[in-house]
Amino acid sequence: MPPRRSRVGAAPGASSVGHAWAPFPRPPERPALRGPPPPRPPPPDRPPSRAPPQLLDNPDVAKAFPSDVVERARLYLDGMGGTTGCYTHSQGALVLRKEIAKGIEARDGYPCDVNTLFMTDGATPCVHSALKLLIRTKYDAILTPIPQYPLYSACIELYGGTLTPYYLNEGSGWGLDCAHLKKQLQDARERGENVRALVVINPGNPTGQCLSYENQVEIVKFCREENLVLLADEVYQTNVYRSGCVFTSFKKVVRDLGDDYKTFTLFSMMSTSKGFYGECGRRGGYMEVIGTTKKLLAEIYKVLSIGLCSNTGGQINMALVMNPPREGEPSHPLYAQERDGLLGSLGRRAHKLAAALNEMDGVTCNDPEGAMYLFPRLEHPPAVWREAGKIDRSPEFLYCMELLEQEGIVCVPGKGFGQEPGTSHFRITFLPDEKDIDEVIMRLKRFNDSFRAKYAAMGDE
Ligand SMILES: Cc1ncc(COP(=O)(O)O)c(C=O)c1O
Questions:
Q1: Mutational pocket test of ligand 1: of 127, 129, 274, the residue with most ligand atoms within 8 Å of the beta carbon
Q2: Cα of 249 to ligand 1 centre, how many Å?
C-alpha cells in the first residue's frame, strides 16, 4: 500500500507534524552587511533623478502635446519626487509654491516668499483657517460685507465669533464706503465687540463690483489705523468685464504704500474654482499671509499639517492657474485664445443679462463689473410681502421658487447673502451658454410679468 498522504500537497512520507513540506528551495543566507551596499547603476535610458511614471518618455506624448506642456509636466513630476500620488509638504509642494510665487510676482511686481504661501483644497479652507486663528471668544468680531458670500457668516458662527456687518452701497454700484465702515466699527466697539479683521471680497460675490485702486488704498489705511487684519478674498481676480475696471491685488496696494506698511497683516485668498478655468471640483486654492511673524506662520503650518496636505491634483492646477503658459511658449497661442474667448463671452453674457433685467418691470440691476453674478433688486407688489410673511419667508423666496417651478431657472434669494432691511434681491449667474442666454432672458421676462400680474391682482390689503 502506498503511504497515506497526511494532507493535500504534502510530500510522500512527510509527517503531518514537524516541518511542513517546502515547495521552494530556501533562499540563500544573506551575507552579513559590511559597510554600505554598492550604489545601484541608474537605468540606462533615463536620468537617474526621475522616477516613474514613464508616460512622458513615450514618443507619442511628445507628438500630442506642445513641448512646453511636456516640460512643465516633467518639472512638476521631478519636483514632486517622481509621482503626484504622495503626500506633499503641508504648505504644498515646493515646486508648485515656487510657480505660484512667480505668478504673484508677475501680477504685482513685488517679491513673494514661498514660506508665506499655504496651498489648500480650494479657498474655503483658507477662510476657515484665518477665522479659526482670529476668533477666540464670542467677543472677537469680524467686519463682514453685506451682502456677502455666506461662507463668512457660517464660519464666524462655527468658530463662535461675532459678525459685525457693513453694508455695500447699492446706489454707488455696490461700493465700499469707508465712512460707513468706521461708523460700523465704532458702534461695534461700543457694544463691546473686539473687532479683529475686515473681510473684503473683490470682485464681489454676489454683488460683482470691482474696487477702484483709490478705494483699496483707503481700506488698507483704515485697517492700519484701526489695527485690523485684512482678509482679501480675491478668487474672482480674473473675472473683470467692465472697461476701465482693473483688478489690483491688496498685496500690491499694501506694498505700494511702502515700508510703513511692512507689518500690515494681510491674508489674500485665491482659488482654481473661478476665472475662466472654473475647475471648482478639483479643489485647488492657496492663501498668502504677509506682514506677520514667523511664529504665526509656523502656527498656521502646524494647524494645516493636521490635514497632512491638500490634494495634489488641486495643487498642480493652482500652480498652472498662477503661472500659465508664457508668451513665446508653444502652448501660449491656444491658451490665450481660450482665455480671451471665455472671458469675452462671460462679459457679453453679463452685460446682455443686466440690460435685459433693467428693462423688466420692478427690476433694477447695477452694471456688471466682475465675478460671475448679478444681484438685481426687486420692487414687489404689496401682496408679495404679505404672502411671504404668512409663510415666514422673504418675498424673493416666493419669486425664486415660482421662477424655478414655472421656467426651470435657478436663482438664489437675496436673504441668503444678507441685504438692507426692507429691500429684496436675488442672485443670478451669467454662466449659461451664450447660445442659451436669449432663451433665459425670454423666460425671465415672461415669468416676471406673470408674477407681478398675479400678485398685483391680489390687491394691496
Ligand atoms: C467669494 C468666494 N470666496 C470663496 C469661495 C470658495 O471657493 P472654493 O471653491 O475655492 O472653495 C467662493 C465660492 O463660490 C466665493 O464665491
A1: 274
A2: 17
Atom 7 in ligand 1: residue holding the nearest Cα: 123
**Nearest ligand 1 atom to alpha carbon 122:** 10
The C-alpha atoms of residue 456 and residue 381 are separated, in whole angstroms, by: 6
Taking only the tens place, the pLDDT of each residue in 339-352 is: 999 999 999 999 99
The residue with cell 436669449 is 438
Question: Quick check: CB of 154 below 6 Å from ligand 1?
Answer: no
Per-residue pLDDT band for 38 (boundaries 50, 70, 90) equals low
> How does pLDDT run across 91-126, given as a tens digit for each residue?
999 999 999 999 999 999 999 999 999 999 999 999
Specify the CATH architecture of the domain 333-456: Alpha-Beta Complex (3.90)
CB proximity list for 121: less than 8 A, separation 6 or greater: 283, 284, 285, 310, 311, 314
**54 band by pLDDT with thresholds 50, 70 and 90:** confident
Q: What's the CATH architecture for 94-322?
A: 3-Layer(aba) Sandwich (3.40)
Contacts for 205 with CB less than 8 Å, ≥ 6 apart: 148, 149, 236, 371, 372, 373
**233: Cβ below 6 Å to ligand 1?**
yes
Atom of ligand 1 nearest to the CA of 271: 10
Domain boundaries, the chain: 94-322, 333-456
Which of 235, 270, 412 is the best mutation target for the ligand 1 pocket, counting ligand atoms within 8 Å of the beta carbon and taking the most?
235
Alpha carbon 110 to its chain's center: 23
Give 380-415 pLDDT, tens digit per residue.
999 999 999 999 999 999 999 999 999 999 999 999
